[in-house]
């Protein structure tokens, strides 16, 4: 039974610790609630500010209470000087744009865009030209071969005639 009594003592200690923690949490909670109430009271103080003063620029109130908020009439600003300044700034900007060198804006090769646009057409024309040249060469070779046959035939006939001529003389 001595063991049970030891367990009971440790259980009572644990319960006391839990109780102390709960009380501490409750006190913290109360403190936070009081702080939040004080902050809300401070917020209420902000809401209790006097309303803004009404100012009248173009309206002339009939009541004397409101006539305190009437502003003196203002004179229009000098627009001419403002416009002159803006025109001067625009002229300066235009001059700086005119001073830009065209050579820095232009491509390095003048015909770059033309070459790019015409290149596919030129490839087709080059293939057709190559075919035509090859056909002309074939025709010329056929003609030369035919002439060579005629020349060979003429040479053989001339040789035969010369041989026959020499036989006749002998």
From TrEMBL:
Segments crossing the lipid bilayer: none
Q: Which organism is it from?
A: Hyalella azteca
**Skewed-composition ranges (Basic and acidic residues):** 21-40
InterPro entries to which the protein is assigned, alphabetical: mRNA_splic_Cwf18-like
Q: Where is this region: Disordered?
A: 1-53
Task: Provide GO CC annotations from the record.
Answer: post-mRNA release spliceosomal complex; U2-type spliceosomal complex
Indicate what this protein is called per its UniProt record: Coiled-coil domain-containing protein 12
């Amino acid at each position: 039974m001595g063991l049970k009594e030891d367990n009971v003592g440790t259980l009572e200690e644990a319960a006391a610790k839990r109780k102390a923690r709960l009380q501490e949490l409750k006190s913290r909670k109360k403190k936070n609630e009081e702080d939040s109430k004080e902050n809300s009271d401070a917020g209420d103080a902000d809401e209790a500010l006097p309303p803004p003063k009404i100012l009248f620029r173009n309206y002339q109130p009939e009541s004397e209470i409101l006539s305190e908020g009437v502003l003196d009439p203002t004179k229009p600003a000098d627009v001419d000087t403002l416009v002159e300044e803006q025109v001067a700034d625009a002229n300066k900007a235009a001059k700086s744009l005119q001073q830009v060198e065209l050579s820095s804006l232009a491509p390095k090769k003048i015909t770059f865009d033309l070459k790019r646009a015409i290149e596919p057409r030129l490839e087709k024309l080059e293939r057709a030209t190559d075919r035509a040249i090859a056909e002309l060469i074939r025709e010329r070779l056929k003609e030369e071969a035919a002439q060579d046959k005629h020349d060979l035939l003429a040479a053989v006939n001339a040789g035969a005639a010369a041989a026959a001529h020499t036989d006749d003389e002998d």
